[in-house]
Amino acid sequence: MASPQCCANPPTLNPAGGEGKVVDSFGGIKAYVSGAAESKAAVVLVSDVYGFEAPNLRKIADKVASSGYFVVVPDFLHGDPFVPENTERPIQVWIKEHGADKGFEEAKPVIAALKEKGVSSVGAAGYCWGAKVVVELAKAHEIQAAVMCHPSFVTVDDIKEVKCPIAILGAEIDRMSPPEVVKQFEQVLSSKSGIGHFVKIFPGVEHGWTVRYKNEDAAAVKSAEEALADMIDCCSACAQQHHNGQTSASERRHRCSIASSHCWENPPALDPAGGGGDDVNDFGGQKAYVAGSAGSKAAIVLVSDAFAPNLRKIANRVALSGYFVVVPDFLHGDPYQPDNPNNPGMWLQSHNPKEASEVAKPVIAALKEKGASFIGAAGYCWGAMSQIQSSSMVDCTLLAMLCGKVIDKQQMPRHLVPEATRTRLSYPFPELILTSRLEGCRRMQNPFVSA
Questions:
Q1: Is 381 a catalytic residue?
Q2: 44: closest CA among 61, 28, 30?
Q3: pLDDT for the residue 259
Q4: pLDDT in tens, 179-196
Q5: N or C, which terminus of the chain has less Cβ within 10 Å?
Q6: Helix, strand, coil distribution of the chain in percent, nearest 5
Q7: What superfamily does domain 4-259 belong to in CATH?
Q8: Which comes out higher in pLDDT, residue 382 or 139?
Q9: Catalytic member of 98, 207, 254, 262
């Protein structure tokens, strides 16, 4: 049964809106299209019950197109969107005439038309009613990536059958897919070994917020823009994976989640001359910042995020505790640039954390050659080399590299995991996180230290 939330805040439809154009037939259906027609990556947007003329939906299409995609917004409602004022045709009656199963069948020729024009990667994003269409496409493996925004009519059984990477963006205030249901979706996806996923619940927003916000509501606009950024980043990650060939499920989950907008917030002013240590041109084959006593038998490798904020300060503090600290330049002088027109996913294509883990091995070997008997490593966001599940996850993860084997926090005995990681503390506690990390390293040096 459809909830009143499905119909709240109806938009004022505009058939002439948007920077793109309306075509009479794309895969046999009228559609709004935007972006470079020659692009090899496409995104199909599936509307809510108000159809493809909704102004905010066309804004989304244009913004997605500006990231390099060819975007198609089919009119699966055939000029018959839901009209709240028509009391003789309530949503319960209207929905029977516009089943998502029809949208699913009509989407297949649209995707076929995209492939015929040379598109190699097709993603689809659905809003409310449209999310059900998208999950059906994901179940049939018709697309390479799926995004569902405040989904309606989607069930746990649907999620069990998904066959492509998927992002689910839910609302805290949602009677159609309340947070507890979205969390069930996440649990199912986490149990599927071959499917990458990204699940996020937006606080303080209601069902439909991504497309039916009011432009004068700054908070609503910000949340909608954040959801759009998450959608684009996940599509980008999946498109790159499809272009580059098959990857493991863990890497698909990692790429999608690490592309979240949280990874790029608060960029620092970088200072190549900062810190009290030294810059060396070659440490294990990498340019690096080093600090502390070179004669120390205990070493720490710090692996930056996409920017490396305050990392040299952290290195100096760790060095004061008796460690020799190495901060390799695994980004090779190319940190993420927030003002770069290329989106984060494009940057990630050139800076795969998995590749960084490989080039870290000679750094570890160089430390052993110079006599280090204990080597720990701390990574931040990108540098953690493991997926970021949600914005509530702690900012940094402690990794131990012992005898050439990387041990993550799930594999560590509890007493070896820093307290900051156990309690999921985040940004407001840098001193405690640093202190706990050092204590964690000390415990790894001596596992018999009591917790």
A1: no
A2: 61
A3: 47
A4: 999 999 999 999 987 788
A5: N
A6: 35, 20, 40
A7: Alpha/Beta hydrolase fold, catalytic domain (3.40.50.1820)
A8: 139
A9: 207
